[in-house]
Structure formats: C-alpha cells, structure tokens
Amino acid sequence: MTPGWSWYVIALVVINIVGCGWLLWWTAKRRPGDPKPEDTSHYWDDGDITEYNKPLPKWWINLFWITIFFSVAYLLWFPGMGAFAGYGKWTSGKEHDFAQQADNARLEETFAPYRGKSIDVLAANPDARRLGRSIFNNTCATCHGSSAKGAIGYPNLTDDIWHWGGSPDRILQTVLDGREGVMPEWGKVLTGMGGPYAVGDVAAYVRALPDPAHRMQNNFGAARGKQLFENVCAGCHGKDGKGNPELGAPDLTDDYWMYGDDSASLQATIANGRKGSMPAHRALLGETRARLVAAYVWSLSHPEPAVAGAQR
Questions:
Q1: What CATH number matches the domain at 118-311, 2.60.40.10, 1.10.760.10, 2.40.50.220, 3.40.1160.10?
Q2: Annotated binding residue at 278?
Q3: Is residue 233 annotated as involved in ligand binding?
Q4: Is 140 annotated for ligand binding?
Q5: Comparing 78-82, 143-147, 303-307, which segment has the lowest mean pLDDT?
Q6: Does 96 carry a binding-site annotation?
Q7: I need a surface site. Which of 29, 62, 215, 291 has the fewest CB within 10 A?
Q8: How far is the C-alpha of 275 from the C-alpha of 306, rounded, in Å?
Q9: Is 183 annotated as a binding residue?
Q10: 236 is in an annotated binding site
Q11: Residues near 178 by Cβ (< 8 Å), separated by ≥ 6?
C-alpha cells in the first residue's frame, strides 16, 4: 500500500471513530431550555399515548463508549489503519501458516502407518485405497475424471495401457515428478517427403497397425504411409509401432487413442503435434500421499486377486 492510500485509510478510520464519539456526546447531554423528558406534548389517539424525550439509560450509553474504546484498542493491536501493522504483528499469512502446520501434523499422524510402503502393498490395503481415492478425487479428478477414465487428451487410468510404463515404481515416479509428453509437428516434413497426401497416408498406416494383416489389404494409402512412418516416426514409436515408455511414446498397435481415433484427429496429431503435461505433485502431496494415490491408481487396473498375487 502506498503512503498516500495509507494516510487516506487512516484519516477515514479516525474521522469515523471521532465522529461516533462526538455524536454520542452531543446527543446525550441536556441543554438549558430543553423540555422535560415528560413534557413534549405529543399525544396520539385519545390522549393515552404520549411521546416522551427521555435519554438512554447510562448503562446503555456506557456500552457505546466501551465499544469505541475497544475499537481503538483493536486498531492499535491488529492491522486496520493503512500500512500500520499493529503492535500485535498479526497477519493473515501467519494465521494461515499456523493452521496449516496444525493440519499437516494431523495428516502426518493419519498417513504415518503407510509411510515408505511399496505401491502393491498399499494397493492390497482397503484403508490405504480409501485414502488414495480421497486424495485422487481432491487432486487428480479434475483432469482424469472422478471415475479415472480420462477424457480427450487425458489418459484413462483404469485400463492396462501406460505410455510411461505401468509398474508401481513408474506410476509413483509419474505422480511425484510429473511427465512432459511432446509429439513434434511432422506436417511440413512429411509433405516435403511424400507430397500433399503424406500426412493422410501415415494416418492410414497408423490406423492399420492394430490389425495390419486385415487393414493393410488393398489399402494403398497405408502402404505409402508405411515407408514414411519407418523414416520419420519409428525413431520414437519403434519400427513395429510398439512405442517407447522411456520417451512416453505410445504403443500404436493397441487401438487406444488419447486424442481421438478418427482420421481427422490422427492427421491433426501428426501434422500439428501434441503437448501433454502431467504436473509434478511431490511438493503438493509429499511422498506418502503420493504413494497412496499411486497405489489407488495402480489398483484400478489390477483387481484384488491380481494385487494379492503381486505381493506373493
């Protein structure tokens, strides 16, 4: 707050307090010539109702004075007059930090039994899964949905397809440190190599990869796209299109398409690229809560018998 605005606020506060005190003093005192409290001569109806001019009781007026004195003391102790911080040095930031520390202490007590345990062990614990689901709903459901089935551009976490690897350790690493998935723009490169239909040809070949024995038959666009794919795309996705979890390059043979499986969506991905970002949650959640949410996510694609088998 600038000094000018600070003095402006202080002036408003002082004027209001002084004004309230003056108004209370001015209206409470009696002056020579004032009529008696019972002598206003204002009558209603048949004369049974008379308006008096009696002053407020002393105890009531004293309560007003106490309120004014309290407001002055309050403004001296707490910030309220411009840039003056108050003698108590109270701030909302300190109050927030204090409450946060108390909440974190309670959370640490709740999460202590799960600290350092492996993901598959936590996934087999119903209480751990319940806590993980709560953390997921508060933190992850915004992107992946409350059912964890994802949406266009956000992966489905309930299947067995993992672009960055689906082992417990890889899932935990994803939650803690995040991921940055980048699909470069290949439109100009492919057009320069194969002409104006090159992007469409590569899209046709990619759509044929889940079942090449049938989908490549009499598919001349896919046949042309095969050579372009091997020259440009195989560096990340592999010559067979199986992908590379180390790079986050998806397997193109599983018939799962995060950005849509229609021809227009695939061509847009190839020509314009994609950029997906999974934020790091280490600082937000801490390792124990990250382990719990990772265990819950891992359990979604591993039914309880499989979870129990993973522990043996």
A1: 1.10.760.10
A2: yes
A3: yes
A4: yes
A5: 303-307
A6: no
A7: 29
A8: 33
A9: yes
A10: yes
A11: 277, 278, 279, 280, 281
